[in-house]
């Protein structure tokens, strides 16, 4: 396997990259980074890791990173730090469209995309804690919410022919244990909560690459 990860400089991306190297030590991991200096040394110094420096709008570098890849994980996401100043042109959803088109050009079909419960699914029901989080976030960063929603729409429409899985994560605990249990389900199913273990979520995501139990589905991950 040759895996390409976008967003590996973020906390969740680092957990996923490390889990992949643990499970597949003889495989190749490609990390696409706008700022490679933010990658931890244990990743950049690993012989199985290739770092491609590039912006999300640089099609040449996107294509270079995609060469020979068998699966893609995107841990990209808008940040609420800019609040009301976040741009209205949905930059992350636009980047997803470029990534999906580049995947199609290179014949890459497997996509696991990280997002949040702001992206809705027909199987969802009402959940007061998750609805409260969504409403609160939308109040202070409406353009961020619009971008997150557009990411889900882009994966489901532009990437309709891909073997995609939308993994929805709410709040992350600092738990780094890859053996920490996580539950996959839907909003309001009586099982899913608002918090998940980073380590457990990373293990679930790497397992899902080949298990394919959630292709064309959008599970929410949470701790039990």
From TrEMBL:
A GO molecular-function descriptor: oxidoreductase activity, acting on the CH-NH group of donors, NAD or NADP as acceptor
Q: Which InterPro entries match?
A: NAD(P)-bd_dom (IPR016040), NAD(P)-bd_dom_sf (IPR036291), Polyketide_Oxido-like (IPR051606)
Annotated coiled-coil segments of the chain: none
Superkingdom assignment: Eukaryota
Stretches assigned to the NAD(P)-binding domain: 7-210
Similarity annotation:
Belongs to the avfA family.
Under what name is this protein listed?
Answer: NAD-P-binding protein
């Amino acid at each position: 396997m040759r895996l390409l990860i976008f967003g590996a400089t973020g906390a969740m991306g680092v957990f996923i990259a490390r889990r992949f190297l643990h499970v597949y030590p003889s495989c190749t991991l490609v990390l696409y980074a706008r700022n490679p200096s933010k990658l931890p040394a244990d990743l950049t110094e690993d012989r199985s890791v290739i770092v491609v420096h590039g912006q999300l709008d640089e099609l040449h570098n996107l294509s270079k990173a995609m060469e020979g890849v068998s699966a893609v994980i995107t841990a990209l996401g808008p940040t609420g730090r800019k609040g009301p100043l976040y741009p209205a042109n949905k930059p992350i959803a636009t980047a997803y469209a470029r990534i999906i088109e580049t995947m199609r050009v290179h014949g890459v079909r497997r996509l696991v995309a990280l997002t949040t419960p702001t992206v809705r699914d027909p199987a969802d029901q009402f959940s007061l804690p998750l609805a409260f989080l969504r409403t609160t976030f939308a109040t202070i960063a409406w353009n961020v919410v619009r971008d997150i929603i557009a990411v889900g729409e882009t994966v489901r429409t532009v990437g309709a022919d891909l073997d995609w899985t939308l993994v929805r994560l709410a709040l992350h605990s600092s738990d780094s244990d890859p053996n920490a249990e996580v539950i996959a389900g839907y909003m309001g199913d009586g099982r899913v909560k608002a918090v998940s273990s980073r380590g457990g979520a990373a293990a679930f995501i790497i397992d899902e690459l080949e298990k394919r139990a959630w292709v064309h589905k959008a599970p929410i991950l949470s701790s039990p």
